[in-house]
Amino acid sequence: MIQSPTGDAEKDAEDNLSLAGPLFNVQLGRRDGRVSQASRVEGNLPLPTFNVIQLNTMFARHNLTQLDMIALSGAHTLGFSHCNRFANRIYSFSSSSRVDPSLDPNYAQQLMDACPQNVDPNIAINMDPVTPRTFDNVYYQNLVAGKGLFTSDQVLFTDTSTQSTVNDFANNPGDFNGAFITAMRKLGQTGVKTGNQGEIRRDCTAFN
């Protein structure tokens, strides 16, 4: 949501008008919280190093299934990451392999070229190297090709318990869109505040 028509955010989001993706109705009426602290993020969002078990555990806390988790991970078809969030995959993966062997070699080299060691941490890399400005199922095709940026992305294909769903979403955009809509609606019903909890903000960017 962009509140000010003259802010930098609107200029940066200019291309969002053509990001594509599924259309669905969003339920209204969620109350806003009265606490907003960066320290509360840890433990509530998955880390880029998570494996499937860790991902499932975190999503299950919010009554989301493995299918929901895989579908919501598809949001990584958009956005970017700073180099330090995945540098371990291209420079210090393990004692036996400097580069994560699940990475496509050409993609790994592209990442090293874009993110040399000790690089400026402000450099950002597209989460989806193929269609970074389109909401589509290419994210899953990237995983099949070894082009998942985070460990938590690529494990969705390398882990046998999730691989079939990734293959399905990679080949059937309608299946992905349907699962994504279902998961987003469930996510919107997580942690809903009722009664005197929270508030309805007069200004979305600040507490009342």
Automatic annotation (TrEMBL):
Q: What is the lineage of its organism?
A: Eukaryota, Viridiplantae, Streptophyta, Embryophyta, Tracheophyta
Q: Domain Plant heme peroxidase family profile spans what residues?
A: 9-208
Q: Which residues bind heme b?
A: H76
Q: Which organism is it from?
A: Ambrosia artemisiifolia
**Family per similarity comment:** Belongs to the peroxidase family. Ascorbate peroxidase subfamily.
Q: Does the keyword Transcription apply?
A: no
Give residues annotated as binding Ca(2+). Answer: T77, D128, T131, D136
Q: How is the cofactor bound?
A: Binds 1 heme b (iron(II)-protoporphyrin IX) group per subunit. Binds 2 calcium ions per subunit.
Q: Where does substrate bind?
A: P46
User: From the UniProt record, which GO molecular function terms apply?
Assistant: heme binding; lactoperoxidase activity; metal ion binding
User: Which keywords are on file for this protein?
Assistant: Calcium, Disulfide bond, Heme, Iron, Metal-binding, Oxidoreductase, Peroxidase
Name of the molecule in the record: peroxidase
Q: Which Cys pairs are S-S linked?
A: C83-C115
Name of one Pfam family that matches: peroxidase
